[in-house]
Amino acid sequence: MTSLTTTDARLANGAATILRIALGVMFLSHSLILKLYVFTLAGNAAFFEKLGLPGWLGYATFYAEAIGGVLLILGVQTRWVAAALLPILLGAVWAHSGNGWMFGYPNGGWEYPLYLVVLAVVQILLGDGAYALSRSWLPQIQQAAAPAFNR
User: How wide is the angle at C-alpha 55 spanned by C-alphas 54 and 56, nearest 5°?
Assistant: First the structure.
């Protein structure tokens, strides 16, 4: 019979995996689908300029989201990647702050970007989870948590 502590660790490891993959897919969809195909890279850069930011930051954001999304899905240095993507998420909160709370409002409110900030912070705290290609910093926590699924 497994102890409650062992079960909790296994569940947390599985939760970290699910969260990691979901965040990765979200970043990929926002970069490849939204910024590349819907807005286009030039349109995304123009949006950044409209916000008073340099246009090149729109391109950098696209690449960071695309690369970061792939790294999260694969489980490569998950904590570091989630931490590196936090400024983008905080920037999205700022960019949508004038549109009201609900993301369904015209031009999107800041509710969803703030929720993504919270999810990224939780991912930083949980780490890689199961099926990750690498283990992130604080490896003693990763070793203490048994994988949620048999590998």
Answer: 95
Which domain, by its residues, includes 38? 4-144
**Does residue 113 form part of some domain?**
yes
Taking the complete model, does pTM exceed 0.85, yes or no?
Answer: no
User: In this structure, is residue 151 part of a structural domain?
Assistant: no
The number of distinct structural domains making up the chain is 1
Q: What is the Cα–Cα distance from 74 to 27, expressed in whole angstroms?
A: 13
The C-alpha atoms of residue 117 and residue 134 are separated, in whole angstroms, by 23
Q: What is the rounded distance in angstroms from the CA atom of residue 99 to the CA atom of residue 9? A: 40
User: Is residue 149 assigned to a domain?
Assistant: no
Identify residue 48 by its one-letter amino acid code: F
pLDDT, one tens digit for every residue, the chain (151 residues): 556 566 677 888 899 999 999 999 999 999 999 999 999 999 999 999 999 999 999 999 999 999 999 999 999 999 999 999 999 999 999 999 988 888 788 888 899 999 999 999 999 999 999 889 876 444 554 454 444 444 3
φ, ψ of residue 45 to 5 degrees: the values are -60, -40
Element (H, E) at 85: helix 78-96
